[in-house]
Amino acid sequence: MGLLDGQFVPALDGVAYGLLLFVVAAGLSLAFGTAGVLNLAHGTLYAAGAYTGAELSDGTWGGLLLGLLVGTAVACAAGVLLSVATAPLAHRGHLAQALLTFGLSLIGGTLLIEFFGADQVPVRVPEALDSSVTLLGHRYPAYRLCFIVMAVALAAIGTWVLTRTRAGAAIRASADDSEMLAATGVNPRLVHTGVLAAAGALAGAAGVLGAPIIGPGPGTAETVLMLSLVVVVLGGLRNLWAIAGAAIVVGQVQTLGVSLVPGWAPYLLFGAMAVVLVVRSRRATATGTAGSQVGARTGAADPIGWLREQLRLFVAPFAAPLAQLGRRVGSNTAAVPGAVRRGLPPAVLVVALAALPWIVDAYALSLVGYALALGLLAVSVTVVTGYAGLPTLGQTAPFAVGAYTTAVIADAGWTVGPVQIVVAAFAAGLFCLVTGPAVIRARGTTVLMITLAVGELTVVAIDQLKSITGGTDGLVGFPGPQLLPGSAELIEEMEVYHYALVVAVIAVAVTMLMLRSPAGRLLIGVHGAEERMRASGHPVDRYLLLAYVGAGALAGVGGSLMAHVRQYISPADVGFEIAAFALLAAVIGGTVSVLGALFGAALIVLTRDWVAASWPGYGPLLLGVLFVLTVYLLPRGLAGLRGTPRERAGGGTGGDADGVAGNGTGPGGGTDDGDGTDDGAGGADGLNSKAEAVR
Q1: What is the pLDDT of residues 473-524, one digit of tens each?
Q2: The CATH number, out of the four listed (1.20.1260, 1.25.40, 1.10.260, 1.10.3470), of the domain defined by the range 2-262
Q3: Tens of pLDDT along 554-570?
Q4: 342-640 — its CATH code?
Q5: Which of 627, 594, 612 is nearest to 367 (CA)?
Q6: Are 101 and 225 in contact (CB under 8 A)?
Q7: Which GO terms describe its molecular function (predicted)?
Q8: What is the pTM of this model?
């Protein structure tokens, strides 16, 4: 009883905190589950309401009411604008929406700081609520009790509106069958706008009422968004009471969990989110993949032999394509002139990059080195998103593994650069081998959410393992790399830059070689015609897992370079923002162009660190504008500005900015199922257009 009595106040705080998250998550669920918009600007709408309410609060009931009305109206208007902004993206999938709304959140966050300042804003509540009441022998803030009552009432009213009114029926019909709704005389577009307006209003009202609990300040929008995403994943999209229950669980973890098990609490939220997503994705694919599982037998009799057999089955599909690649390279001498022509632009680029130390200053050179590291991360995103068809927001996880592995082994005396690269790639690849099975079975938005959870769990682990990673303080002062054992440490900016350039060129060359090989074409076939590949007996899951592990190893190499180029690593260098930047870089390139992804990374670093230096404080605004322009102006990235010859002739598509493969059809209407045969006259053009984009 003593323990329960001592934890009464934290538990009640968890209820209040959870119900606040419920109000926010209800709006996020409404936007995503009904309007189909993955709104990563939802936390910014909360912050807009919170700032507005705090600015208008003067300690009176009139000030509270005015703040509630204005804050709700501002966020509601932002929801309407969001509906207009996302309308052109209706047929481009959730990835384009996520990038657009993330860019809008960067712009909105900068504007809020411009208007309200960067400091924490105090919130004044009416005197009657600015007191404590006695509850079961404990003193507790009256405002929080009042908020609990209002949130429960909101859940009841919201459920009644959605289930018992004509407006709720129209909302449900819009989500289930918008064409049928239009046939009844109701404009689905109007319903879509109303849903996003209502979702914005919920976020704004939550911001005003929740400001005394989660006050407006730096990082508020990101915190609220992440926790709301967890709530929506755990509670689902349609049932408000389930969302409320999930929100209370999250609130308890954030308050009571931290009080009782502080060492485990940070892992619980995103861990639970990942588990729920994996279970749901496996249920969704269980029926479709039940007939395609190979070798599902136990190894109780001979576990060592069983493991060897599994390894042989895993590697066997790639042995023949790689052997064929070797024969083709050795015998096809007629292709050399064409290969030289294709290799000339990259060669000129490498020469220009090598000459930079004699052209630019040390700061600019360090930015180019960092762009190379971020570029490898973007290329790994290109492999996973553009070729494997798994849009990812968590590729910073293996990137972080590679970076911290390099720093830790450098401190331990393993300072030979090539050794560090190999160890970092191996560690990152092993990490992806462990997490890969949870990713490759999912598709679409579920992949985004699972990889986001993996990335956030990695950041949490970095924060917690302070003895190894330095926690939030990061790691600094580790030795630089050596080219060979016993050689001098690379300290000078030029030396480190050239080291990073050589490693990046080799890594990119190997990646392009693999993507152009028959193994890479198999991966393209999986993306373009997965069901046919499965039906023809291809081990699709092994292909995807190998691509995911290889991309993770590449990200680990990028992390290793980043550690030496920056000479400092912190969780901020491998967090959600960097994951979004890497995804944007891949989208700028077209999600199918390796060199395009490198260019996208360079453009992001140029915007964030060089252009923004001339405009202090407006870096996020510039990046937000870059996100928005990329989504609207480059729907298929730079690679889509000029269709490939096959694509122009045949009309097939290899993918768009969302990383979703086209149907791979040409004039003949045929499709390439990835087994080396063309089922129609123009079928291979759509899939092959991807391979030609690797330039």
Answers
A1: 889 888 989 888 888 888 888 999 999 999 999 999 999 999 988 888 888 8
A2: 1.10.3470
A3: 999 999 999 999 989 99
A4: 1.10.3470
A5: 612
A6: no
A7: branched-chain amino acid transmembrane transporter activity
A8: 0.81
